[in-house]
Structure formats: C-alpha cells, structure tokens
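Thread amino acids onto this structure.
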C-alpha cells in the first residue's frame, strides 16, 4: 500500500503560441512513466516507525508531432507491505520489479498528477494532457427511449 506520495519537481513548457496550437488537427501526446532508484527507508507512521520501499518516479507528458510542449513531474512514493522489503528491492534491482507494486505506484502517481497536468496544459495553452470525458445529454436521452429497462421491484 502507498503510504506517502510526494511531488518534488514540476517542469512545463510550451514551445509555441496558443494560436499556433489551434492550427494543428492531430497532436500526438506521449506519456512516459519511469520508476527508479528503489531504497528501503524508515518512515514515521501513525502505527510507529515502519520500513518502506521508497521509489523515485518521473512522469512526463510530451506533445509530439508537432513538438509543441511538455509537462514533467518528479517525486517519490513510499510503498509499505508486510512482505520482505529487502527481497522486493533485490528483485527490483535485478530487473524483476513486481508488476503489482509498479502498477500501484504508477496508478497512484497518475491519480494524483492528472488534475495538475490538466491545469498546467490549460494554463500553457496546450491541448488537455489527459482525455476529458465528453458528456452528451441528448445521446443519453435517446438511449433511454430506445433501450428497455429490466428493473424488477
């Protein structure tokens, strides 16, 4: 379980003007997640001192084809488990990082940073850095009329 998530550095830049960005129909947005430098540290928790696996992360959002900007986050995440953290770190160091731990760290990272990335992309005049859901009330009403409901009461 993730017991600490810290953001230590934010870097963002637009390489063009907002007016130029609007000219482009298709902009490729690339997401790069890098988890690195696992270490075992002692963390003070409400349950006392606990050893945790601290993993540094980099999350970069690159606007490519054309290259119009980037947003980059760096920080660290502390993972706690009853498992043997030393063995977990050794696996990670040997290139066999457990997928479930990587997924938990990466998903926590995206959940915490996506709102900030959206605000930064808007402030820089870049397209939304993450897909924003599109709500269409007309489509929802049409579906209600066409599709029967099967509620039993």
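Threaded sequence (153 positions):
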């Amino acid at each position: 379980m993730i017991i600490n998530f810290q953001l230590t550095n934010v870097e963002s830049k637009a390489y063009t003007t907002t007016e130029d960005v609007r000219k482009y129909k298709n902009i490729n947005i690339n997401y790069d997640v890098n988890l690195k430098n696992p270490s075992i540290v002692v963390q003070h928790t409400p349950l006392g001192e606990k050893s945790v696996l601290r993993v540094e992360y980099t999350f970069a959002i690159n606007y490519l084809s054309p290259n119009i900007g980037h947003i980059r986050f760096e920080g660290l995440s502390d993972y706690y488990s009853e498992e043997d953290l030393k063995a977990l770190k050794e696996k990670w160091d040997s290139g066999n990082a457990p997928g479930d731990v990587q997924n938990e760290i990466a998903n926590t990272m995206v959940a915490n940073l996506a709102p900030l990335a959206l605000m930064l992309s808007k402030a820089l005049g870049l397209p939304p850095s993450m897909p924003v859901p599109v709500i269409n009330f007309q489509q929802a009403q049409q579906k209600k009329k066409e599709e029967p409901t099967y509620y039993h009461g």
